[in-house]
Every structure is written in C-alpha cells, then in structure tokens.
C-alpha cells in the first residue's frame, strides 16, 4: 500500500518461504523514515513512531543481520514489493521514489550514460536541467547535455570509477585501441571521457562485480530516490570502497532512508539501527520471546568499533 514520502511502515508482518512450508519472520513491526537531519546516523533517530502500534522505533538507516536462512533478503524484497509469500501490511512510497540494489546489479544493454541514469533517461534532468514540457531549443539542449556530461563524470569519480569513461572513449576513437596516453600526448582526457559516456558495450561482461556494484551506487545517486533497499550491495567491494559508497549516499542524498543487508560488521558504521533476525519461528510459535527478531539502536561507540572489524562476518 502507498506510504508517506520516504517512509516505509511494516505492521504485523509474517514472511514465509515461497512454498509456505517454513515461516521466516513472525509479527514484525517496523518504521523506516527519512533522517531527522542531514547529519551522520545518530541514535537520536530511535524516537518511537506514534502511529505504529508495538513498533520499537523509527530507523532511517537500518542494517538487517542474521544467520543464513533467517529471511534477510526476503524482508528486503518484501519492502521493495518483490516478495508476496506472507501476510501483514507494508506501506511504502511509490515505485518512482524507491530503488532496489541487488548483490548482482542489472546492467542494461546500451551506453554508460544510459546505465548510470537507468531507469531515468538521458536529458531527463538528473543534473538539474530544465523541467519537462516543450522541447528545448538546440542551444538549450546542448547546455542540458553539457551539464549532464559534467554531472555523470563527477558521479563516476564519486563512486571510484573515474577512469572508466575516458578508457572507453579512447578505445572508441581508435582502431585498434592505442596504449594509454597522457592527455598532453595527443588526446584531451575530458573529450575522451565525454565520448566514453556514449560507448555501447556489454557492461555486465566487461565490468567486474565490484565495478558493477559501484556503477549501481552511481545509478542510485543519479536517480535520488527517497528510499533505497541495498541487498548485499557492497559484497564485492573492499572496506575503503564500501566506506566511500555509503558516505556518498549519506552526503549526497541526506534525506534518503535506506535499509541494508550484509555480513560485514563494518556496515554498522553507516546505520542507525540494527534488526537482528534469529532462528526462523515455527508456524505454532506465538510467544514474544520466540519471534526471532530484535530491533536495536546503534550507538556511536558501536559505529566507532566497526572501523576495526575487517575480515569478520556476522
């Protein structure tokens, strides 16, 4: 059902396996709401939601953890509207205000520009261009494209793919591809980068999984959703790249609420609440202590400690 802007409300949610033989989550109440301010995640976001009976509080940046088979990815898919085996109520924003980032991103057939802007379109105003309506003049259209070029190239730098457009722009300008050249050796890196935005290759084949995940974060930043659902979206990244992705999300989209699934304790640093899913409850379990989940605020001390958690998993 539709929810408020940037707000997801879960009431009495039970989730089952697709064959409905095993209950994964029982009687979950949860609120995911926009951050109260544009500052870093704060435990002050744990104020209770007045309109959600039985909810432990409202999270703005929620980390879902638990052993394999406890329903982590199923919950994220339910929040995103991609899982129907269950009962209860989920109120969420419109599809246009949400984005789902899976562990293996979808790379569309087309250009780097189109992949960054998907599901938006080139010239659609991602860079703050003119609003829709009458077709722009050629001068206006050129200005919009130039602004979009600059925006996308800066976005690639932000997600640590700064050389990608230039690399493919250089390859497109010569056959066979020349060895790498410094800009002063005969080719302007800016023009090569702009050309690279419009090169068509099979991006899912030429990019590593880590590069695809960084491209997906660029797509997220370009589309500016109000709610982001991240299902192991940084699993192929090292800790420095993971940090860069989450810091870019928090700084560039300060009003975006997000929920993540992941196995690294380092992820604690980028969230304000943690939902711990335990052993899946049986169909006859009804007692409060056996529902298999606990929602906990993440303290500043816990976020600081997460910086030394390299190499461990939940």
What's the short story on this structure?
This protein has nine helices and twelve strands. The protein has 314 residues and is of the alpha/beta class.
Q: Topology, pairings included?
A:
Blueprint: E1 8-16, E2 23-32, E3 58-59, E4 61-66, H1 72-79, E5 86-91, E6 98-101, E7 110-111, H2 112-117, H3 138-158, H4 164-172, H5 189-197, E8 200-201, H6 203-206, H7 209-223, E9 227-231, H8 239-252, E10 257-261, E11 273-277, E12 293-297, H9 300-305
Parallel strand pairs: 2-3, 4-10, 4-11, 6-9, 9-10
Antiparallel strand pairs: 1-2, 1-5, 7-8, 11-12
Radius of gyration: 21 Å
DSSP helical segment count: 9
Secondary structure category:
alpha/beta
Task: Give the topology string: H per helix, E per strand.
Answer: EEEEHEEEHHHHEHHEHEEEH
Helix content: 25-40%
Morphology: elongated
Give start-end ranges of low-pLDDT stretches: 38-56, 129-136, 181-187, 279-290
Distance between the termini: 32 Å
Percentage of residues in DSSP E strands? 15-25%
Largest sheet: 6 strands, mixed
What topology, given as strand order, has the largest sheet?
A: 6-9-10-4-11-12
């Amino acid at each position: 059902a539709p929810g408020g802007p940037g707000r997801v409300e879960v009431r009495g949610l039970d989730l089952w396996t697709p064959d409905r033989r095993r209950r994964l989550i029982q009687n979950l109440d949860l609120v995911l709401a926009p951050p109260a301010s544009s500052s870093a995640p704060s435990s002050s976001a744990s104020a209770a939601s007045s309109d959600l009976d039985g909810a432990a509080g409202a999270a703005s940046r929620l980390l879902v953890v638990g052993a394999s088979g406890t329903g982590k990815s199923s919950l994220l898919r339910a929040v995103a509207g991609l899982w129907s085996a269950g009962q209860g109520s989920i109120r969420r924003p419109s599809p246009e205000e949400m984005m789902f980032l899976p562990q293996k991103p979808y790379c569309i057939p087309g250009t780097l520009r189109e992949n960054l802007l998907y599901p938006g379109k080139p010239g659609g105003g991602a860079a703050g261009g003119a609003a829709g309506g009458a077709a722009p003049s050629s001068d206006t259209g050129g200005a919009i494209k130039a602004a979009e070029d600059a925006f996308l190239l800066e976005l690639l730098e932000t997600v640590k793919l700064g050389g990608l457009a230039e690399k493919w722009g250089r390859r497109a300008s010569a056959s066979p591809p020349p060895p790498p050249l410094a800009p002063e050796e005969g080719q302007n890196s800016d023009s090569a980068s702009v050309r690279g935005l419009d090169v068509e290759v099979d991006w899912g084949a030429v990019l590593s999984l880590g590069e695809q995940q960084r491209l997906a974060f660029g797509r997220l930043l370009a589309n500016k959703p109000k709610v982001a659902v991240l299902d192991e979206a940084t699993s192929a990244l090292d800790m420095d790249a993971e940090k860069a992705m989450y810091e870019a999300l928090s700084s560039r989209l300060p009003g975006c609420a997000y929920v993540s699934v992941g196995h690294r304790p380092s992820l604690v640093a980028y969230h304000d609440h943690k939902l711990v899913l335990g052993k899946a409850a049986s169909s006859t379990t009804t007692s409060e202590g056996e529902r298999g989940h606990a929602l906990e605020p993440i303290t500043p001390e816990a976020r600081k400690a997460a910086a030394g958690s390299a190499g461990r998993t939940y």
